[in-house]
Amino acid sequence: MTADVLNVQGLNVAVGNTSLVSDVDLTVGPGERVGLIGESGSGKSLTALSILGLLPDDVVASGSIRLSGIGHDLIGADERALSRIRGRDLTMVFQEPMTALNPTMRIGDQIAEIMLIHHTQPTRYAARAAAADLLDRVQLPADLLRAYPHQLSGGQRQRVVLAIALANDPALLICDEPTTALDVTVQALVLDLIVQGVVDRSSALLFITHDLAVVATVCERVLVMYGGRVVESGPVHEVFTNPRHRYTQGLLAASNLEATSVAALETGAGRRRLTTIPGTVPSAGHFPSGCVFRNRCAHATDLCATTPAWSGTSTTGYACHHPAGVTDA
Asked: Does some domain include residue 325?
């Protein structure tokens, strides 16, 4: 069996005695596109920042994070070792493209720089030529090589960030809400370019979002996070059509996933009344003991004061005392 590109085992993230992420296991196989979903405050971005080694100094991660081809655990690695990996083997597209680009550097120089730093192009001339090709691949004209970030639209800047992330053919691309700030038309284009970019390079993708429709479009497998824990995982179609965890069930009921196409909206097919999950996501350190979702769950009982065991395999399963669609649940 081919080794996983990313293997996260028992990831814990904390500030002092306050737990932010607990016991997260996550794998991404070669060429696999995995979604990580949940409401804001569920621990998605902290998980990604742990993988990249970009946590603030007062935030401590423990467990194991291994990347294919890298002989050491990323947790505990020094900044020099992580700098060799970031931008080459492991790259990320963040939510806000303006903060990811240097406002004082031309676009061409920023794309070329990442290749020169990691020596994937032998000369500045070769790097500039590769930068022009990368712009073409993300459907931007070569004359933008001489532009500054402020001269580009949000969608153009995000495509530049994607070009930089893909420049060195990374083993794993992480995208954290990469289309949230974009309008719907540009969002669709950027999503297509992300998928095409990783497919062309046989890269793996970890896609973080709160948008279930985006996961259904982009990903093959999904992990659902709540309260810093993975509460359900499996193939996208299976999880979205037959959710087991009550939180996943609530997310789907609160989405308009069944009426995402224009045709469905015009005809009324799939249109339904949306529901909401009671309450809000608690702040860090204020999740209930036992099942972290029990204070918002209509199916909670005294049993939910204990932590539910994981049911299923390492990649497909759930952790819920009263799962949906299970007899006597």
From this structure: no
Instruction: Give per-residue pLDDT as tens, 203-258.
Output: 999 999 999 999 999 999 999 999 999 999 999 999 999 999 999 999 999 886 65
Whether 169 and 195 have beta carbons less than 8 Å apart is answered as: no
Residues 6+ apart with CB under 8 A from 125: none
Q: Is the pLDDT of residue 185 over 90?
A: no
Q: Are 283 and 152 contained in the same domain? A: no
> Which residue range forms the structural domain that includes residue 148?
100-169
Domain boundary among the residues 169, 197, 220 is at 169
Give me the number of domains the chain comprises: 2
Q: Is residue 25 part of a domain?
A: yes
Task: Tell me the Ramachandran region of residue 266: left when phi exceeds 0, alpha when psi lies from -120 to 50, beta otherwise.
Answer: alpha
**What is the rounded distance in angstroms from the CA atom of residue 225 to the CA atom of residue 247?**
9
Give the pTM. Answer: 0.92
